[in-house]
Amino acid sequence: MPLNPDLEPVTLPMELKFGQTPTTQFQNHLDAFKLELVDAPTRLQAWNVAWHYVKATWADHPTINPLDASPRELSKNLEDVFAGRTLPAPMECLGFTFRLSGMSFQQVTHVIRHRAGTFAAQCTGDRDLRDDGAVIPEAVENSPEFLERWKKLVVDSKQLYADMTDSKVVSMMDARMILPKCMTSFYYMRLPLKEIIGFIYQRMDKQIQPSEDNLSALMMAIEVAKVLPEFTTVIDFDKPDMHYIKTFRFKDGDKWVSRGTNLYWPEPKNDKFEFHPNDTIYQGLREDIKGTHPPEGPTKFQMKWEELMGEWNALKADHNRWKEV
User: Fold this and answer.
1) Which end of the chain has less Cβ packing within 10 Å, N or C?
2) 179 or 59, which is more confident?
3) How many other CB atoms are there within 10 angstroms of residue 182's CB atom?
């Protein structure tokens, strides 16, 4: 069909920013990251689904009524589901939707690697990114000689992106390739309970996963436990990271080899084997590597982790008290 300039143009869903000067808000990568629960079943719905699915196996009739059970019986049944003492089907029926924002593109690759999730992404192909924020790790913030270079590269790359986009001879879909991984984005992620447990256990590993992944695991556990207090019975954040331990070093013929990500020395909970100082890329714990001019005291990650663990332990204690009444 021919062009028709007499038609009324459509209203595009995105803001056009041609000719505008780029702006950048820099944030610490842990301060920027947020994980919020936007949709979940109620506790009663979870109890009912778990009761129907678990009790159906031995029922003489299809009319299984959860109202015949007490709240504590329903809660105990859900705990049995979480603990693997029943068929896992109820966990596949109960889904949670989270909004993850303030993520670097690097963190995005870790999140969407969990293939069992359903995702909705903030677009980069036809949305102008010149005003998107950028994040900075704490070790870089503590290194002035690196921090200024970091910021300059971000600002320069965004200006080049804007210049190419404004030229209209390079599309923003091509221009975006110049932008650094520290640029932020948000995603929606839908996971069934069964996959939430797997996500948490994979991402809570401090030896292999980056600090924002560790926080996302703990934040997710807290959000689920606020809805389903029984969830506190299934996740153990003190559990050793067995993949790291098993792959760190082992004998292959007459040689000691590694098949893992040996970035740092083992955390106390993983310090269960002898190792050489040079078995790792860095000779120290992860939190020892915090820049050229680090302040005294714990790192931002350690403070955030302890705060969130306090919230998790409080939810766990509340549920245990409820069971004992």
Assistant:
1) N
2) 179
3) 22
Q: Which helix (H) or strand (E) holds 214?
A: helix 211-227
Fold of 26-41+94-239+299-324: Gyrase A; domain 2 (3.30.1360)
Domain spans in the chain, listed from the N-terminal domain onward:
26-41+94-239+299-324, 244-288
Single-letter residue type at 276? H
Q: Say what the alpha-carbon torsion angle 201, 207, 210, 214 is, to the nearest 10 degrees.
A: 40
Q: Do residues 138 and 301 make contact, with C-beta atoms less than 8 angstroms apart?
A: yes
SS3 125: coil
Q: What is the pLDDT of residue 103?
A: 97
User: Quick one: CA dihedral 281, 282, 287, 291, positive or negative?
Assistant: negative
Q: How many CA atoms lie within 13 A of 184 on its CB side?
A: 24
Q: Which residue from 122, 134, 127, 175 is spatially nearest to 14, judged by alpha carbons?
A: 127
List of residues 6+ apart from 222 with CB closer than 8 A: 308, 311, 312, 315
Model confidence over 203-241: pLDDT tens digits? 999 999 999 999 999 999 999 999 999 999 999 999 999
Radius of gyration of the chain (CA): 24
Q: Name every residue whose Cβ is closer than 8 Å to that of residue 97 and which is 6 or more positions away in sequence.
A: 37, 38, 39, 40, 188, 189, 190
pTM of the full structure: 0.93
What is d(CA 244, CA 262) in angstroms, rounded to the nearest whole number? 8
**Element holding 192 (H helix, E strand):** strand 184-192
Asked if residue 67 has pLDDT above 80, the reply is: no
* Cβ atoms < 10 Å from Cβ of 125: 10
3-state SS class at 223: helix
Edge to edge, what strands does the sheet with 95-104 contain? 34-39, 95-104, 184-192, 118-121
